[in-house]
Design brief:
The complex is a heterodimer. In chain A, 76% of the residues lie in helices and 3% in strands. Chain A contains 16 helices and 2 strands. Chain A has a domain of 226 residues: MetI-like (MetI-like fold). Chain A is mostly helical. Helices cover 76% and strands 0% of the residues of chain B. Chain B contains 15 helices and no strands. The longest helix of chain B has 37 residues. The N terminus of chain B is likely disordered. The chains are: A mainly alpha, B mainly alpha. At the A-B interface, helix 2, helix 4, helix 5, helix 6 and helix 7 of A face helix 1, helix 4, helix 5, helix 6 and helix 11 of B.
């Protein structure tokens, strides 16, 4: 296998990509062209401009936009002088960090329940996919205002009192708020259930049978088969959840950004809002990165073994190459020596 | 021994169903709440002995809410605002996803990376320059400001759709396309004739998601299409719901309704009206939807 691969690699390195391959590459690029143009306009250009805006104070005058370069002035203004932004951001971070694991775990549980052998599967699916359809900013806002987003029987006060005994005040209130908006949190897990469900359905059932044959319990099956298989989906879901929460209209920061964008005051406006958006985005991306690192850091035993084996194989291949090279060198040396001494040495055959 | 195992199974089943029903109730709770309280009249609301079931079936709230939301006009506009970009989104994302899934070319990994990055990046960063750009192009407050990005595969959550199509087209056997090419089909023709018809489930999934997301988007709709400072005439049900109280006050002043102050029931009726169309769409399409989810498998990287 490895030898074949090596040969293939050698050949592909030598042969230039043929006309067909080149034509396919060009066609592929042609298909992607709309996206490339779009990315240039709506991603690269806007991001660059947004960054430039963030460094400026922009005032709308009848003559058009008036730029005044202020450097990092907007950022310091936001972080030091804005009474809304920093508390909102802290609230956003704590609520996201707390609710993401809950949403993902909850989604996994529901997906597993739905994947199991149950009656009225269609009916339950119909209900559980409802949030995918219904959840939207104003609707959730209305429901939250009317108190339909929390089950009144859960007494928030008691929970706060219970938790604040051994946790700092800020975390305790965040957690109790989480309980207060439990339905909202659960309602955000629609797409995540879908993603988990489609991953669960791809697991070969013979794997579970084999595990059961070997005496594995359901609990063990979950940890050893289900979880490793859906692991990439966990990361995907975490990212999706963070993105969803950060773009949801229930999130106060994006409303804040919009309001300061259209605010008529002197120091606010486009530049100020851009700086705010940049700060916010950095925080969002950081949260995503932290979660991704946390989830990817714990490689399981199998993966570690595979990595080790791959390393070993590479080492071996290097050794083989080294020996090969040495062999060639030696052969050359011998050849040279033989040429040199072709007629001068006695090779024992008897004729001179 | 066999019996005990079966018994255990029964208990477990009971637990599973109990869990399912409990969680299902949590999911249904807001909708049940909405339905019941939207039908209450003022007396029912104030009466503390009435919790769930209104004393009489009262559809007046719906009439008031529909009136203040300008229901039929908003509904038509919602369908256009959600529908047109969705169709374009499906088309452009299918093309891009096919290009990424079927062909190999240098820089493909980079493009995938940028797609994922653009998904993670909050839209607020690019929002302000985009707003200025639309303003300069003179398409602010028109449907074009939604059409243009979706035409270039940059609409709402387009990254996800590209990844869905990418995943799907990667699974289409290459042999099939090669056979078509041997029979004389060009690259484009083999895409339209061979790959696209087999992508039905993916198309349906993307269509439904895109439609719902555009329907539910109020932040960007308000920003680009219906206008923040000035009204452009475009509006959607969700946008109307967002400024429901103000709308209601306007409507009440015209004297068209008997209710003069907004109450919970009217609010809930308005909310119900704004989600009813997608709810109906979902109930109609849900069989295909669930099926296609099974077939496509929304799986990114």
């Amino acid at each position: 296998m490895s030898k074949k691969d090596k040969i293939a690699k050698k050949n592909s390195a030598k042969i230039k990509p043929g006309r067909l391959a080149r034509r396919e590459a060009i066609t592929g690029l042609l298909f992607v062209t709309p996206w490339i143009i779009g990315a240039c306009i709506f991603l690269a250009y806007t991001m660059g401009t947004s960054f430039w805006y963030a460094l400026n104070n922009i005032r709308m005058t009848p003559m058009g936009k008036k730029f005044t370069y202020v450097g990092t002035g907007n950022f310091t203004q936001i972080l030091l002088a804005d009474v809304d932004f920093t508390p909102q951001l802290i609230e956003y971070v704590t609520s996201t960090v707390l609710s993401v694991p809950i949403i993902v775990v909850f989604a996994l549980i529901i997906a597993m329940l739905l994947n199991g052998p149950i009656k009225c599967k269609g009916f339950f699916r119909l209900i559980f996919f409802l949030p995918v359809i219904v959840v939207s900013g104003p609707v959730m806002g209305m429901l939250a205002d009317q108190g339909a987003a929390s089950i009144s029987t859960i007494d928030t006060q008691a929970i706060t009192a219970a938790i604040s005994g051994f946790l700092p005040e800020a975390v305790a209130t965040a957690i109790s708020e989480l309980f207060g908006s439990m339905i909202t949190v659960l309602w955000y897990s629609g797409v995540q259930i879908l993603i988990f469900l489609s991953a669960l359905q791809k697991i070969d059932s013979s794997m579970y049978e084999a595990a059961q044959m070997d005496g594995g319990s359901g609990w063990e099956c979950f940890w050893k088969i289900t979880l490793p298989t859906v692991k990439p989906m966990i990361l995907l879901n975490v990212i999706y959840t963070i993105v969803f929460i950060s773009g949801n209209e229930q999130n106060n920061i994006i409303t804040l950004i919009k309001n300061s964008m259209f605010s008529g005051t002197k120091e606010k406006g486009y530049g100020y809002a851009s700086a705010m958006a940049w700060l916010y985005s950095v925080v969002v991306v950081l949260i995503v990165v932290i979660f991704a690192v946390l989830l990817m850091a714990r490689k399981d035993v199998y993966e570690r073994q595979v990595k080790k084996a791959k390393k070993e194989m590479k080492k071996e291949a290097r050794m083989v190459k080294k020996i090969e090279r040495r062999g060639i060198r030696n052969a050359k040396k011998i050849e040279k020596a033989r040429k040199k001494r072709k007629y001068s040495t006695y090779d024992g055959s008897g004729d001179y | 021994m066999f019996g005990s195992k079966e018994k255990e199974g029964f208990l477990k089943q009971l637990l599973v169903y109990a869990l399912l029903i409990c969680i299902g109730f949590i999911y249904l709770y807001p909708i049940l709440y909405m339905t019941s309280s939207s039908m209450m009249n003022l007396d029912d609301l104030l009466d503390s002995s009435i919790n769930w079931i209104p004393s009489s079936l009262n559809l007046e709230n719906y009439a008031v809410a529909a009136g203040s939301m300008d229901f039929w006009k908003s509904l038509g506009m919602s369908i256009i605002i959600a529908g047109v970009p969705t169709l374009l989104n499906v088309a452009s994302c299918a093309v891009v996803g096919y290009g990424l899934g079927r062909f190999d070319f240098p820089g493909k990994k980079l493009i995938m990376g940028i797609i994922i990055f653009s998904f993670i990046l909050p839209s607020q960063v690019t929002m302000i320059p985009t707003y200025v750009l639309y303003n300069d192009l003179g398409i602010l407050g028109t449907l074009w400001s939604f059409v243009l990005p979706s035409l270039l595969a940059q609409g709402i959550n387009s990254s996800i759709f590209i990844l869905i199509f990418y995943q799907f087209f990667k699974q289409v056997p290459k042999v099939l396309i090669e056979a078509a090419q041997i029979d004389g089909a060009g690259y484009f023709k083999s895409f339209v004739r061979i790959s696209l018809p087999s992508a039905g489930p993916a198309i349906l999934t993307v269509f439904l998601f895109s439609f719902v997301w555009y329907w539910n988007e109020s932040y960007l709709t308000q920003m680009y299409v219906s206008g923040v400072m000035t009204e452009s005439g475009w509006t959607t049900l969700v946008v109307q719901l967002n400024k429901f109280a103000a709308n209601f006050a306007d409507y009440a002043q015209t004297g068209a309704s008997s209710a003069t102050t907004i109450n919970e029931s009217i609010n809930m009726a308005g909310t119900m009206l704004s989600i009813l169309p997608v709810l109906i769409l979902y109930f109609v399409l849900q069989r295909y939807f669930v099926e296609s989810i099974d077939r496509v498998g929304i799986t990114g990287e």
